[in-house]
Amino acid sequence: MALRAGDHNQAAMNGLKEKVLTLDTMNPCVQRVEYAVRGPIVLRALELEQELRQGVKKPFTEVIRANIGDAQAMGQKPITFLRQVLALCVHPDLLNSPDFPDDAKRRAQRILQACGGHSLGAYSISSGIQLIREDVARYIERRDGGIPADPNNIFLSTGASDAIVTVLKLLVLGEGRTRTGVLIPIPQYPLYSAALAELNAVQVDYYLDEERAWALDVAELRRALRQVQTRECIEAVIRFAFEEGLFLLADEVYQDNVYAEGSQFHSFKKVLTEMGLPYAAQQELASFHSVSKGFMGECGFRGGYVEVVNMDAAVQQQMQKLRSVRLCPPTPGQVLLDAVLSPPAPSDPSFAQFQAVSGRGRGGRGHGVAGGRGLRAPSPRPGLTSPPSTAAGEAGGAGRAGGQGQAH
Predict the structure, then answer these.
(1) Beta-ladder partners of 204
(2) pLDDT (tens digit per residue) in 220-229
(3) Please, what sign has the CA dihedral across residues 133, 134, 138, 141?
(4) In terms of CB atoms within 10 Å, which end of the chain has fewer, N or C?
(5) In what order do the strands lie in the sheet with 304-309?
(6) What percent of the residues of the chain are helix, what percent strand, and what percent coil, each to the nearest 5?
(7) Oligomeric state and partners (predicted)?
(8) Assigned CATH for 80-393
(9) Element (H, E) at 354
C-alpha cells in the first residue's frame, strides 16, 4: 500500500476512509504527461460539437478538426478493396457471396488459413500473424529495391505509436542526471514528449528550419546533444548517429505521400544499407509504418509494424518478451496492414478501382510505394506551415538519436 501516515491519521480523525490512490500517491511521471492531440482544446471542441447538436446558437455551424491526422473523420471514404478483405476475414460466410471480387476472396482465404482455428477472433502470436509478417518483409524488399528483410525482425503493432513506445521502453534507463535523453525535432508530434514524460526520460530538443522547408541541420543535432528531407541529409544523420553511438528511430508513416514531380521516398534502412560498411553492419535502427496515415487513413483499426535493423540479439529477445505481455496486436489491424502493403496486381479484378481511388497498385508507382513524411509542397509558403518530419531518438548514457526518411 502507498499511504502516508499523516494523511491516514487525518482521515481516521474525520471518520473518512482515505483513498489509496491519490494525486500524491500515484506515479508522478503520469502526471507530467501532456498529449495535446487529445488535450483540453479537443475536450472543449467536443463540448462545442455537443452544444451545436443540441441547437445552441453559435457564431459558427461546425467544428473543423485540425488537431490530428484522421482522414476518415474528415470525410474521406474508405478504400473498397481494403474493407472487402477485412469484411471477408471477419465474416467468412461472405466468401460465398457474388458481391465480392475473387482477388479479395483469395486474399481473405489466405489470411484465414494462417490464423489460429482459421478465425480472426483467435489470438495471433505476439509479434503478429507469421504470414502477414512475411508479407511485410516482401513489401519492404520491393520498397527498398531488393534489400533483404527478415520477418523475424518485424513486429506488428497496434499502430505505429504502440511500436514507438515499445522501442523507447527498451532505450530508457537511469535516474537523475544519468537518465536517458531522447533527441526529438521541434515542432514535434506530441506522442514523443508524452511517452518520454511517462517513461521518465529527458527530452532533448533540436529545431527544424522553417525557412528551408523544415530542413534538419546536423550542426543543430550536435548542439542539442552536448526533418530529414533529402537523401544527403539522411546520410548525414546516419553518420552523426554512428559517430555519437546513437540508436536511430525512423517514423516513416507518411512514406506513401509523395506528390512532387521527380520525388521518391528514401527509407532510412535503404540509405543505411547503400552507404555500406561500417554503417550497414553496425548502425542500429528501428523504422515504423502504419495503416493510419498515407492514402489509406484507417486510423481506428490500429495496424502498424516496426522493423529493427542491427539490434542486439539478446535485446531483441527482450523486445519479444515485452510484446508478449500485450498478447498480440488487434487482428483486424493486421489484416488491413497486409491488404495495404500488398495491393492488387494489374491482373486482379480489383486493380482498376483500387488504383483509381488510391493512385497505388503493384503495377503502379514504386510497386505500391511512394512518399515521404508529410505532404511535401515544392516550396513553403509564408504563414502557418507543417514540418515534414517527425523523429525520436535518445542521447546520453548509451546514447541514441532518431530521424525521419523524406522525399527528395
Answers:
(1) 183
(2) 665 555 443 5
(3) positive
(4) N
(5) 154-157, 304-309, 285-290, 248-251, 392-393
(6) 45, 10, 45
(7) Homodimer.
(8) 3.40.640.10
(9) helix 351-358
167: left (phi over 0), alpha (psi -120 to 50) or beta: alpha
Collapse the DSSP code of 223 into the 3-class scheme (helix H, G, I; strand E, B; otherwise coil) and give the result. Answer: helix
Strands 181-186 and 202-207: parallel
Tens of pLDDT, residues 130-175 = 999 999 999 999 999 999 999 999 999 988 888 888 888 888 887 7
d(CA 1, CA 366): 57
The rounded distance, in Å, linking the Cα atoms of 247 and 249 is: 7
* Element counts in the chain: helices (H) and strands (E): 15, 7
Determine the Cα–Cα distance for residues 157 and 129; give it in Å rounded to an integer: 11
Between CA 341 and CA 357 the distance in angstroms is 16
**Residues sharing a CB contact under 8 Å with residue 137, sequence separation 6 or more, in sequence order:** 149, 150, 151, 154
The residues near 120 (Cβ < 8 Å, ≥ 6 apart) are 89, 90, 111, 112, 331, 332, 335
pTM for the model stands at: 0.72
Domain with CATH 3.40.640.10 in the chain: 80-393
Specify whether the backbone of 202 is left (phi greater than 0), alpha (psi in -120 to 50) or beta.
Answer: beta
